[in-house]
Design brief:
three-stranded parallel sheet; 209 residues; globular; 11% strand
Amino acid sequence: CAVVTTDLNRVPRRIRAALELLESTQVIDVNHHLGSWQPFARVARDRNQTEGNSPIQQRLEFMDDVGISQALLHPDPRTRDERSTCAQLSQNAADVASSCSERIPGALATVALTSPTIVDDMASHAMTCCGFTFHHRFIGHVLDHPAMDDVADAAGAFDLPVAVHCVAESTLAALWRLLSLARRFPKTQFVALVAFSSPSQGQQVYDIA
């Protein structure tokens, strides 16, 4: 909707109310990934930002430019399903969040689904993370992988949510797999990210929620 006028009194009431709401709305990005710093550095150069700024400062400037008030940080999703790798990436995300907590008030952790000590791995992050996150399409496991039962059970005990990326183009992360998991663990909170990534999947979301 484009409103071309300087006189808000001439704007229809409902549109005027929406515009006023937008002015007072904060955007909280709950799917903000800690990947390579290079895209943010390129954006900083393109927008004539100071190249000498730290990577974290460049990211915050990027958030300012696109109107993101705060963000919850996810580890780099392009990872192998290895215990040590997941632990390091989760720690990296936690370190970044703690260095700029006003803008990034929390970080999520991830664990390897193939780890024989998956519950202990989760326990090592439970005091410092704000939830657990998984990108099943990237790690090559289905969303309702047997190990996700342990994840859901432990997350419920820690009173922490489990965020999963339900990308419509990937059958590994299909919404019906999340529904199957959530039905088995009704006391665990699940967050379905990118759930509206196709029109047909968007229609399913309301019934599954």
